[in-house]
Amino acid sequence: MRDNPIVPSVDFDADGVQHGFLKLPHSADDSAWGAIMIPITVVKNGTGPTAVLTGANHGDEYEGPLALWNLARELDASRVQGRVIMVPAMNYPAFRAGRRSSPIDDGNMNRVFPGRPDGTVTEKIADFFTRTLLPLSDYVLDMHSGGKTLDFVPFACAHVLDDATQQARCVAAMEAFNAPYSLMLKELDAADMYDTAAEQAGKVFVSTELGGGGSASARTTAIARRGVLNFLEHAEIVDGEPERGPSVWLDTTDARCFVTAEHSGLLEMRVDLGDEVTAGDVLALVHDVERTGTAPVEYRAGIDGILAGRHYPCLTRPGDSLAVVGEKVR
Ligand code: ZN
What is the mean pLDDT of residues 252-265? Predict the structure, then answer.
């Protein structure tokens, strides 16, 4: 296969703290012979495991970038045994545009894995992760939030995997991240995801959804900052013990957890994130926006649980992810 065109300005084998770029050649109208300069920080000290930490896999999700911009500035090499590779804004063009997907090629980073060295800009970045960064890694943390169209209770998540031993290691790392909620996730469509590429490469992989709405609160940012440190301490890359606070365990492996809109209209939530619901409870109403005087459509919970996610804008249309109910496990 062709070499990836991305050239890192950092040396992954050098001890110390390095702040640099993944330089991706991109000749465009506004910059002939130019390049996309994706910030990267590597902190290495001696031998030990490697963690690859990412944010803004989707460009409008901010807790991950905030946690990693802070960590990149603060993490001293003397506190590290092994290596921490941080890419705070994985889909950098999308991040700069404040969009979920790239303005260059409309690429949704988490739907183009394993990527291609001769593909679109987004596919080239994915290929660099698949063939260069993932092989260097032992522990992989990819921090998401809901972006502009979704909002979530802050959770870390692990996937149901075929390999029980690997799943147990991922679950232990999810638990160490210690978000207020911990969630077992069965993806609706796992093909083409970074998660799947990391898991198939045998890595300990944790993802998150830490909020949403296209912004970040003080609370969710603090959860991300502490969670990253917890994750690195769990991996024994950074000295210290992960903080252990209470976390509600949720399961979303039942298809009835996911409520999809079938109508266009004005969305009225009847429960809020974190609220307990019983099967049959009305989660939301959708009002017909073309006329007054008609009854709204009711959307009900399919199972008992907690409202873990919701469509964020108050306008909705068929196909929107309206609500996610997590089954409370413990
Ligand atoms: Zn995301």
Answer: 94
Compute, in angstroms, the gap from residue 65 CA to the centroid of ligand 1: 12
Question: What is the C-alpha separation between 169 and 98, in angstroms, rounded?
Answer: 34
Residues 275-290 have pLDDT tens digits of: 999 999 999 999 999 9
**Structural domain of 274:** 254-328
CATH number of the domain bearing residue 281: 2.40.50.100
266 domain-assigned: yes
- Dihedral, 50, 51, 52, 55 alpha carbons, nearest 10: -160
Q: Specify whether 180 is located in the same domain as 157.
A: yes
**Ligand 1 centre and the CA of 146: distance in Å?**
6
Separation of CA 128 and ligand 1 centre (Å): 19
**Global pTM?**
0.97
Residue 190 Cα to ligand 1 midpoint, Å, equals 13
